[in-house]
Write a structure and sequence with these properties.
Length: 242
């Protein structure tokens, strides 16, 4: 009789941002027509490390891990039965790891084309932000965006996380448009003086309608949220303070 492979039904990882050094958890559930089979789950954490959990006859396994370095990690799992058949899955959510001591972000300036004036005295695109961990598990600060050519005004109201990785910082939060529409926003910036791949300060700003998921504004349309920022500033600077 041919041995049937296990079937992974769910694989979940922690969705909340986690501090470096604190445990995050991954849980896999699976089924197997071979009711007498025992199973082992190998969780690969995306940072080069892995954990093996012997589930025995159970159909669920959980593992915990503490990341040493802030960043964004893709977690995967392989479940193998005692006859060698296996199934694999990758988490649909990215594990977000921050470190309050990694640095804080300050950026203010304008984007290309902002020398044009729309007649109301405002330049085309200006941004201003400040974010840092003072205490607790969420950053504090301020964020604003003004696209004078279209009249778009965004004001940040809350921040979710700030992840500093070398010369790159990624900040996510929520806010409102001038008409009260709720939005989420993502800002990633590169501090050119920290190198190593560029000497230019660069930024990416994305605004999304919270209710519909529609993109309201994006300096890199179609790019993944974690893509490296590519827009070179016309004026101003991006500073990651270590």
């Amino acid at each position: 009789m041919t041995n049937a492979a296990p079937v992974i039904t769910t694989f979940t990882t922690s969705t909340a941002p986690t501090a470096a050094g604190a445990n995050t958890t991954a849980t896999v559930s699976f089924s197997d027509v071979g009711s007498a089979d025992t199973h082992a789950a190998l969780v690969s954490w995306g940072d080069g490390s892995s954990s093996t959990v012997n589930a025995g006859l159970a159909t669920q396994a959980s593992a915990s891990h503490a990341y040493a370095v802030p960043g964004f990690y893709t977690v995967s799992v392989t479940v193998t039965d005692d006859d060698g058949a296996s199934a694999s899955a990758t988490s649909t959510t990215t594990s977000i790891v921050y470190a309050a001591t990694a640095g804080w972000l300050q950026a203010k300036g304008s984007l290309p084309g902002s020398s044009n004036n729309n007649g109301n005295g405002k330049t085309a695109t200006q941004f201003d932000l400040d974010a840092r961990y003072v205490s607790g598990t969420v950053p504090t600060g301020a964020f604003s965006l003004s696209v004078g050519a279209t009249g778009l005004e965004v004001r940040g109201t809350t921040m979710e996380y700030l992840v500093v990785e070398g010369s790159k910082a990624t900040l996510r939060g929520a806010g409102t448009l001038a008409d009260g529409t709720a939005v989420s926003w993502l800002v990633s910036g590169i501090d050119g003086k920290l190198g190593p791949n560029t000497t230019d300060d660069r930024i990416r700003i994305r605004i999304v309608n919270s209710a519909t998921g529609a993109t309201v504004y994006d300096t890199q349309p179609g790019a993944a949220d974690l893509a490296a920022p590519t827009s070179v500033l016309s004026t101003g600077k991006v500073d990651i303070h270590k």
